[in-house]
Design brief:
The structure is a single chain. Helices cover about 75% and strands about 0% of the residues. The protein folds into two domains: about 45 residues; about 80 residues, Helix Hairpins (Orthogonal Bundle), CATH 1.10.287. The chain starts with a helix and ends in a 6-residue tail after the last helix. It binds magnesium ion (MG). The site of magnesium ion has 4 residues, from α3 and α4. It is found in: Cytoplasm, Cytosol. One of its GO terms (biological process) is DNA protection. It is an enzyme of class 3 (hydrolase). Its EC number is 3.6.1.12.
């Protein structure tokens, strides 16, 4: 039969083993989570207009908001967001490319307002039956014909 101190030592080393292993597992889980989040972020960066459009439709369906999404309402909402976007640049004078002297919070705010404009534009296009990706692609081609590059 084992003595009390021998049992305590065994228990102590068993506990240490579990603590060490659980930390190791935690580290692995964190690394795995970080890798998954990174993958997810990459996916989000490459998100398509169609996917955004689908998510906007789901968002509206879940809240029964499509009834408010008439083309006119969406246009006015988008113009309101353009106003919010303009407000960020108001009174700043000329702003250099890349916004080098801006606070992170201001850049984050800018990203949000740009997104508001984009999301309303996509929703407006959808409610008008316009395939925005297709229309924008055709417009770029049309612009290239209208304004040929000098070396062509
Ligand atoms: Mg906004």
């Amino acid at each position: 039969m084992k003595g009390a101190s021998s049992l305590a030592t065994e228990l102590d080393s068993t506990l240490k083993f579990y603590i060490k292993n659980s930390r190791h597992m935690e580290g692995l889980e964190n690394k795995q989570q970080a890798a998954e989040m990174e993958k997810e972020e990459k996916k989000e960066a490459d998100i398509s207009l169609k996917e955004l459009s689908r998510r906007l439709q789901d968002f509206a369906d879940e809240r029964d908001w499509e009834q408010y999404h008439s083309p006119r309402n969406l246009l006015l909402a988008m113009v309101g967001e353009v106003g919010e976007l303009s407000e960020i640049f108001m009174w700043r004078g000329e702003v250099p490319k890349g916004l080098p002297n801006w606070e992170e919070a201001d850049k984050e705010h800018l990203g949000e307002e740009l997104s508001d404009v984009l999301l309303y534009l996509i929703r407006l296009s959808d409610m008008c039956g316009i395939d925005l990706g297709d229309a924008a692609t055709k417009k770029i081609v049309k612009n290239a014909v209208k304004y040929p590059a000098k070396n062509n």
